[in-house]
Write a structure and sequence with these properties.
5 helices
């Protein structure tokens, strides 16, 4: 019996892999995972800079260190979850908009930013959703313009 891993992939298998990796679901999940990692690092760095919990000066040094590390872990995981959700929503919505419009331009980023901002602010009501939409859309437009200004 031959080993299937030693054979090069067929054109059909390559096409199936390309279709899977270019799907909006894959892009959204992958962006969410990457956002989780980036958010964890970002949260860890920021929690090391800003320590808002009061330190119990009566506790031992070991207990104080344990408290600080627990606080850093909580902030890091909170940031990781937020970044993961934001990245997944943005990436998925941008992919779907781009697929629908069949164009790759700045308007996809603006619309995806609006969808992301509005979705993240859904608990704040219509006014908050409109502000979230405008803020994320403006940020997305700025980033997209900067990344493609030399094109």
């Amino acid at each position: 019996m031959s080993n299937p891993f030693t054979q090069p992939p067929t054109a059909e298998q390559r096409a199936a892999a390309d279709n899977f990796m270019n799907s909006c679901a894959f892009k959204s999940v992958f962006s969410g995972i990457a956002g989780y990692g980036i958010g964890a690092v970002f949260g860890l760095v920021l929690s090391g800079i800003e320590f808002s919990s009061p330190v119990d000066t009566n506790a031992s040094t070991k207990q104080q260190i344990k408290t600080v590390f627990k606080d850093m872990g909580r902030k890091s995981m909170s940031s990781a979850k937020n970044f993961a959700i934001m990245a997944a929503i943005y990436s998925g919505s941008e992919c779907m908009i781009e697929s629908y419009r069949a164009r790759n331009d700045i308007y996809n980023s603006i619309a995806a930013g609006c969808v992301t901002g509005g979705t993240l602010a859904v608990r704040t009501g219509p006014r908050g959703m409109a502000m979230g939409c405008a803020g994320f859309a403006a940020f997305s437009a700025g980033i997209d313009w900067y990344m493609h200004k030399d094109d």
